[in-house]
Specification:
Structural class of chain A: mainly alpha
Strand content of chain A: under 5%
Structural class of chain B: alpha/beta
Number of helices of chain A: 9
Oligomer: heterodimer
Radius of gyration of chain B: 27 Å
Distance between the termini of chain B: 40 Å
CATH class of chain A: Mainly Alpha
CATH topology of chain A: TorD-like
Shape of chain B: globular
CATH topology of the largest domain in chain B: Rossmann fold
Number of strands of chain A: 1
């Protein structure tokens, strides 16, 4: 679960030098391979996209787009169809109880999908809590927006990762359901 | 496998590790109802509403990073404890998912208008702008950058920054696209501004004549409250309008005037007052000059002549003039705000003011009170190289002569007034005449829904070397900018004090209710940080905005902390002529020191010293004159993405006279395209078939017809009057752009295939 969280945080944070380094060094690709192996999924191949193109794509997909923003990067938009809804409030309470708060230099909302990813990763010692975050907050966002990214991502980078994370969470959800039944 | 941390979140050591799995399960239960906001610790701060330009003082109720409610407060002379729907709905803008969230830089090589951007840090974005500005200054001079703005924060970008930078090309739409004729006419007649809070003593008036006034449709809070008081106190109401407006529906008389003939009616009323000896002789004798010339001038303008022009019966014209006289000085013709109609608008407003003067109502109860600005010192800075030239609702500010080494405004010489005309600064961006304008800042103004001739504006934007948009929403023109700077909304920021000229002058304070969401910044911060980078640091000597505000407040014997507990500081005014006379002072700042019925200054400048009537441009065969106005629940083109207001009114409709509708075959529920004289098409827009408008005109409310897909509620709803205003007639005195010389025909259209706004909003809330 921790790796899933880090991959989410790395991929959906504003693309800067850190992501470029992850891509150039192959760390992100390796992380996907590791997750794929663990979850019994085929390993996706990330496209080789220059950072400048990722930045342009990220802006048009997640920040601002004159043709309409296809993928608001906030889990609350998938949960409540709006910002600052009940899902957002529940997430904040969960963060509070988990001892998490946003850093002062994080100039975005706490339900940004990258922040949720990082929260999942940080709750390494609390697997049930991490799993709740992943299944109840991240998964609905991926379920709604992974197909949209398939249609709108000009680079293939975001759509590949979103689709893979969605598949991974489907497996986790299925495993969780099975273990509860048994 | 480890990836490096991104550090968006941090762990609080006190609580982490204390979480039980059981607790987590409870917390994530969807069944748990969140406690109501008002059961939590609610903070209240004084704020100023920004959902229209009346700027009511409000109190915001805040929990954490969320404003849940705003209310007017009694101590504030704007809201007086009450708030309109727009004010109540305004907080929704702060939490609009479509907001601009981060600074953006247009991707190099991409076409302007294609909307391709990358996220940038504030430092990177401001450095980029500064480098470009300094380059333009070096190559073309400081005047090559124009500054347009609208809103409470515009002072930093349209007044202060350009004056410090050395560009006289700073403009607001609220001048030449709105109030310029009435303000310039007031200066030439009374030697005083009208100002943003129209100085009418509504509660004491007994007879009101509204000409093309939007009261009840523009929802200026206090004005509506006082208008209601006037009616409650028994004031008679006459409404002159080609349309049976909201105000007309309350009136004792509706005069459905032929569009563009208002000056003829005003001149005829002056004629009756003079020819029947009904004017206030003592007042005219004491306070005015030029009566003898007016008497000679007005002779031909009989009611019978006016009937031919206006299509209002001469007998009615006479009756209304006599009724006005019966109620003088408590009879008043209040100036409306949007006065740029047909291009001869300053003279129309002069005629209106002359009529008011004959009624003896200026500076007297039941008429115009004399508004005074509150006393408040500026923050001490080195002298700015230029005087701010944009003007505003308070009238002209700029000087006649430029200081040594600085160029005059690019629109200078096209008209008489000292203020800048925003629409006249577009041409130099295209032609380079009289000199090139190569850079543009657009702060809070919607370029495509304010300035006429949108194709020309788009061509101008393409020619620029630097275009910076500072805004809150991804409006169409914003997505053309080279750099987009996302401003914090009004609830998230301090602004400079709002000072209001009034019967009791007052100062209002805006205090942020919470930290700005996302990576947004207040306008003052943007101006200061940019100033540092373009060599203007000396003009921003203050370290924090609190220090700036506190220093200004000290000049009136208070401090910021005290003001934060008050919200509004009210001072004493001198509303009546008798107040001035007691002190041996004269309020009329005209060359003669009196109300100038005849204006020697206009004569010297080559204009008619007394208003003359010019017939309007005729309506072409097959067309209707396009009239436009306001919706009570929207402000210009600023509020059409607000879910609360869109739930109340999600589109405009085109008013069409019932007989014309029958002739054209329109039925209730039909839609139409509006096509103007230059072939520009807008719509589809629903046709409102009504007896409430004359047969020679159609009417739509302004602000709809957005073409910005990034604004999910606003996009594609209704028709835009601005896009249909491809022509305007320049008022050679005020610089105002007369917008009512545009004409449209109607063509049947299919109903638009849009998801209903109510459905969209319900889906969001499902």
């Amino acid at each position: 679960m921790q790796l899933l969280g880090w991959v989410t945080a790395a991929a959906f944070a504003p693309p800067k030098a850190a992501l470029e380094q992850d891509l150039v060094s192959g760390t992100l690709q390796a992380a996907l391979a590791e997750m794929a192996r663990t979850r019994g999924l085929p390993t996706p191949t990330l496209p080789q996209t220059p950072l400048s193109e990722l930045q342009a794509a990220y802006t048009s997909l997640f920040i601002s787009n004159p043709a309409g923003l296809p993928c608001p990067p906030y889990v609350g938009m998938a949960l409540d169809e709006r910002l600052f809804g009940e899902g957002f409030d529940r997430l904040l309470e969960l963060y509070q109880v988990a001892g998490l708060e946003t850093s002062p230099d994080w100039r975005d909302l706490p339900d940004h999908v990258a922040a949720v990813g990082e929260a999942i990763a940080l709750l390494e010692g609390k697997p049930a809590l991490a799993q709740s975050l992943a299944l109840e907050y991240l998964y609905p966002w991926l379920k709604r927006y992974a197909p949209v990214l398939q249609e709108t991502d000009p680079t293939g980078f975001y759509s590949t990762i979103a689709h893979f994370l969605f598949q991974a969470l489907e497996v986790i959800q299925s495993e969780t359901a099975s273990s509860q039944l048994s | 496998m480890k990836l490096p941390r991104r550090s968006f979140l941090k762990l609080s050591a006190a609580t982490v590790g204390a979480v039980s799995l059981g607790g987590a399960a409870t917390l994530t239960s969807r069944a748990k109802a969140a406690p109501a906001w008002y059961t939590k610790e609610v903070k209240q701060v004084f704020q100023i509403c920004e959902n229209c330009f009346w700027r009511c003082g409000i109190r915001a109720s805040v929990v954490g990073n969320r404003v849940y409610k705003v209310d007017g407060y009694k101590e504030n002379p704007k809201s007086r404890g009450m708030l309109c729907p727009r004010g109540q709905a305004a907080p929704a803008q702060t939490y609009d998912p479509d907001r601009l969230k981060k600074p953006l830089i247009r991707i190099e090589g991409s076409e302007r208008g294609a909307g391709k951007y990358r996220e940038a840090t504030w430092e990177e974005a401001l450095d980029y702008i500064a480098k470009k500005m300094l380059g333009l200054k070096e190559q073309y001079g400081p005047e090559s950058i124009a500054f347009f703005g609208h809103g409470t924060g515009d002072g930093w970008f349209v007044d202060f920054l350009p004056a410090a930078w050395g560009s006289p090309n700073a403009a607001k739409p609220s001048v030449s696209l709105c109030t310029a004729p009435r303000e310039v006419a007031a200066q030439y007649t009374f030697g005083r501004a009208i100002g943003g809070h129209e100085p009418i003593d509504w509660p004491n008036t007994k007879y009101i004549v509204l000409i093309g006034h939007h009261i009840g449709e523009d929802t200026h809070n206090t004005q509506l409250q006082e208008f209601s008081e006037a009616r409650k106190n028994g004031a008679k109401l006459v409404v002159v309008d080609p349309r049976f407006s909201t105000a007309a529906a309350k009136a004792d008389r509706w005069l459905p005037i032929k569009p563009g003939t208002d000056t003829a009616l005003l001149l005829a009323w002056i004629h009756v007052l003079i020819s029947e000896n009904l004017y206030d002789k003592a007042y005219v004798e004491k306070y005015t000059v030029g009566m003898d010339k007016l008497v000679a001038h007005i002779k031909p303008y009989t009611p019978e002549w006016a009937e031919q022009q206006t299509e209002i019966p001469a007998q009615v014209i006479r009756e209304v003039a006599r009724e006005m006289a019966q109620h003088k000085p408590k009879a008043v013709l209040p100036p409306t705000r949007h006065t740029v109609w047909y291009g001869n608008d300053t003279q129309r407003m002069r005629a209106s003011y002359i009529l008011n003067a004959l009624l003896g109502n200026y500076g007297r109860e039941g008429g115009f009170y004399i508004a005074m600005p509150p006393y408040l010192e500026k923050y001490p800075t080195p002298p700015l190289p230029l005087e701010p030239a944009a003007g505003g609702c308070a009238g002209p500010t700029a000087v006649d002569k430029e200081p040594e080494g600085y160029k005059p405004r690019a629109d200078k010489g096209k008209f008489l007034a000292k203020t800048t005309a925003i629409q006249e600064l577009i041409e130099p961006m295209i032609t380079g005449q009289p000199y090139p304008i190569k850079g543009l800042f657009a702060y809070g103004i919607n370029l495509f829904h304010a300035i006429p001739n949108v194709p020309r504006t788009k061509e101008a934007l393409k020619n620029l070397e630097l275009y910076v948009a500072i805004d809150v929403l991804p409006q169409e023109h914003v997505m053309w900018a080279d750099v987009i700077l996302p401003e914090a909304t009004y609830l998230e920021r301090y602004d400079d004090f709002v000072t209001v000229s009034h019967k009791t002058p007052f100062i209002q304070l805006r205090v942020p209710a919470h930290e700005p969401l996302y990576d947004t910044k207040p306008g003052w911060w943007i101006a200061k940080e940019l100033g540092k980078r373009i060599g203007l640091e000396q003009y921003f000597p203050w370290q924090t905005i609190e220090e700036y505000l506190d220093t200004r407040m000290q000049s009136v014997g208070l401090d910021l902390e005290t003001m934060k507990s008050m919200g509004t500081m009210v001072q004493n005014g001198k509303p009546w002529l008798s107040d001035w006379e007691k002190e041996g002072q004269n309020p009329f700042n005209t060359p003669s020191g009196k109300i100038e019925l005849y204006s020697e200054s206009l004569a010297k400048a080559g204009f008619d010293p007394l208003p003359k009537y010019e017939p309007p441009q005729p309506v072409p065969e097959g067309y209707y004159r396009l009239l436009y106005g306001r919706s009570p629940v929207h402000t210009f083109a600023r509020t059409q993405n607000n879910p609360v207001l869109m739930e109340m009114e999600s589109s405009n409709s085109v008013w069409l006279n019932a007989e014309e509708a029958a002739r054209l075959g329109f039925k209730p529920g039909d839609y139409a395209y509006l096509i103007n004289q230059d072939g520009v098409r807008e719509g589809p827009v629903r046709v409102k078939i009504t007896q409430r408008i004359r047969k020679d005109a159609v009417y739509i409310t302004h602000g709809f017809g957005h073409k910005a897909k990034g604004m999910t509620l606003a996009d594609g709803r209704g028709a835009s009057d601005s896009y249909l205003q491809t022509r305007y007639t320049l008022d050679r005195i005020s610089g105002g752009a007369g917008l009512r010389n545009n004409f449209v025909k109607l063509e049947k259209a299919p109903a638009p295939k849009l998801k209903s706004v109510v459905k969209l909003i319900k889906e969001r809330r499902a």
